[in-house]
Design brief:
Elements lengths: L9 H7 L5 H13 L2 E8 L5 E4 L10 E2 L3 H9 L3 E4 L5 E10 L2 E11 L5 H21 L5 H5 L7 H9 L4 E3 L3 E8 L7 E7 L3 E9 L3 H20 L4 H16 L5 E9 L4 E7 L3 E6 L2 E4 L19 E4 L5 E5 L1 H4 L10 H11 L5 H16 L8 E8 L11
Antiparallel strand pairs: 1-2, 1-6, 2-3, 4-5, 5-6, 7-8, 8-17, 9-10, 10-11, 11-12, 12-15, 13-14, 13-16, 16-17
Length: 398
């Protein structure tokens, strides 16, 4: 490079790196700019239990906990953690790797102890965010980062479902979404989806009938049909009608998908809803937990040309909404006890002050504890939404 030419930005150099070489490029840039060494990219596994280093695949290095220790703390709190090491002249900084609220993992960087002042840690955090965006984009062109996320092989049905998801979180000024699925490595028919625009958020939770590949194919069709209708600018009830027709046309009523559709007005907090099946919705307002009463309508594809009706309810700043699939509220333990509303309410109350992604994970953890060592026999999906609302007088986004 000519000495007179400007040095490309970090973002530009990361974008120019081959998809599989992002870690090596990050390591070089961090060494040049921060004197860093021992740079490790850790990615959260599908079950959100461990963080695995991106090293030599198909096998990775030893994982660390996604919930404890310096790296796990950075992941769960979404804040940088500075770890004092046994080396007197260096410290290790653990930085969340996150894209618009979707937690991917943690970047661990050993830097000189003179480089852990707040300003430098902030700049390291900006670097980690830039790297996160490139990791998310690189997944279109390489399997490296997807392989690094798995502690064992996914079933084919699970592979299809994870590829269908938008992510496991989304953050905007008006709301924060956190979501989780189990059994992570064998999920079949449960799915969540969302799409945001300048003034609206559309969110769905879908539970395809059956198990394994059959459930995954059914859910893929239902979600694809809902997206197709949504992207055509069709209203919520008509989205359900068109998806219903698509599923019935393929399965003739022998298989169907239960779906909860929600459409939020970001300016007013008014929510339009279609309850097409079994997913349930709870609202936490202050210390009160209530199930949102919605008119139960037929699942998608059960009968030909079903007509759906929208209902409306209101959310206020500070509200938390939690949507759960049948695999949560209908699951029984080995002794036949239903997980049920009382246990769910206890978990929701205990996790009221935790971030949405941790609440979703806690509900699933409570469910797994309820069923015991046998594990889940049905899929379970949990989506948690913290509603902040749009302050009065805030201008509409471009």
């Amino acid at each position: 490079m000519n000495a007179s030419e400007p040095v490309p930005s970090v973002e530009a150099q990361l974008r120019a790196a081959p998809p599989h070489a992002l870690v090596a490029t990050a390591r070089r840039l961090l060494a040049q700019r921060f004197g860093a060494r021992d740079v490790t990219l850790l990615l959260a596994d599908y079950g959100l239990t461990v963080l695995q280093p991106v090293t030599h695949l198909p096998h990775t290095g030893d994982p660390v906990s996604a919930n404890d220790g310096p790296a796990g703390t950075a992941f769960t709190t979404q804040k940088p953690v500075v770890e004092v090491t046994t080396d007197p002249v260096t410290e290790r900084v653990h930085l969340p790797i996150t894209v618009r609220g979707d937690r991917l993992g943690v970047l661990c960087v050993r830097v000189p102890d003179t480089a852990t002042d707040p300003g430098t840690v902030l700049r390291l955090g900006d670097f980690a965010t830039a790297l996160a965006h490139e990791v998310a984009t690189a997944g279109r062109d390489t399997d490296l980062y997807l392989q690094a996320r798995r502690t064992r092989r996914l079933t084919l049905a699970a592979e299809m479902q994870w590829q269908l998801l938008p992510g496991r979180g989304c953050v905007r000024d008006e709301y924060v979404i956190g979501a989780h699925l189990e059994p992570a490595y064998a999920i079949g028919g449960d799915n969540f989806d969302w799409s945001t625009s300048a003034d609206h958020l559309t969110l769905t939770v879908t539970d395809g009938m059956g198990q394994g590949i059959d459930a995954s194919l059914l859910t893929s069709l239902a979600v694809g049909a809902l997206r197709n209708a949504r992207r055509a600018g069709i209203g919520l009830a008509d989205q359900a009608c068109l998806a219903d027709q698509a599923v019935y046309s393929q399965y003739g009523g022998k298989s169907y998908a239960s779906t909860l559709l929600l459409h939020f007005d970001l300016a007013t907090g008014r929510v339009r809803a279609v309850d097409a099946g079994s997913p349930q919705l709870y609202r936490l307002r202050g210390t009160t937990i209530e199930r949102v009463a919605l008119k139960a309508q037929l699942p998608l594809g059960m009968f030909e040309e079903t007509l759906y009706e929208e209902q409306a309810f209101q959310v206020e700043a500070g509200d938390r909404l939690v949507a759960i699939s049948t695999g949560v509220h209908g699951t029984r333990s080995a002794t036949g006890e239903v997980f049920g509303e009382s246990v769910l309410r206890q978990i929701l109350s205990a996790t009221r002050q935790t971030p949405p992604h941790e609440t979703a994970r806690s509900v699933v953890a409570g469910l797994l504890e309820h069923v015991g060592h046998e594990g889940l026999l049905a899929d379970a999906a949990v989506v948690c939404v913290d509603w902040n609302g749009r302050p009065a007088g805030t201008s509409r986004e471009a």
